[in-house]
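To: structure desk
From: M.T.
Subject: fold request, one chain
Message: Could you run this one when you get a chance? Sequence is below, nothing fancy, just the single chain.
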Amino acid sequence: MGEKWTIVVSKATSTILALLLTCFLPVLADDLPGGELEYRAALLSEEGSHPKIIVQTVPDATTTATCLVMRYAEAGKSRSPAGVAHLLEHLLFRSRSGQKPGGLLLRNELLGDSCRAWTTPTAVVFSEVVPADNGLDSLKLQLSRLKQMPVDDEGLTLEKKVILKEIVSVDSPEEQARRKILASFGLEPNVEGQASTISAIDREQLESCLEQLDLESDVVIAVVGPHSSREVRKVLSSTLSPLVPKRSEPREPSLAPVEELETLSLPS
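Reply: Done. Structure tokens follow.
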């Protein structure tokens, strides 16, 4: 069922963003203060495909943080036209497959700053913190984003307008300050693309970007909270069958051999 890894961090309450910086690196370490952290490599079976999973179990936690990372590019080379990943981020943040268009808007608004989505030069990231009782539901939401594009044509039009405004405001002092803060975490946002490119993107291009993901090498899910790795794996197994890799040939491994990696301490 995979191999067990742990990561040393300076505080048990370190944010899930710190985990993102190593989400594509198998890291050998010792015990995590405040709870056990388990890294499971992707699993491929006859029942379907399994993304990489990071579970930090903190028994007394009252909240759960979940995060989904989808890598759409490698070494600065995107598999989709510029702006597609950014629009994908916007649409998956507002709507959920199988539910009414914009069905996540009120929920996300109630969560406020605890619920975020953004792009980096190589990945789309969805991260949120919810009460512990809703932690596994949050995980199910993250998994649903891998299934298929939600049907939300009106939302697609509205989110294009939002991104076009972001492109116009990219040189504003406020935006530059925000990007500087993100860059300090190693999360400098990707260039949003040209206005003409965004306007021309259609649903088929978004679906293609999602379908090109290889679950074993392009997707990482992290869960930090009171839930055991067994509980998390149970949720994953219930959605395992629909999650099958689309790419016919896996990408060449780009990670260093495990034996060459050393224990890593992450800053708080």
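Reply (cont.): Residues 153-168 form the longest helix (16 residues). Let me know if you need anything else for the meeting.
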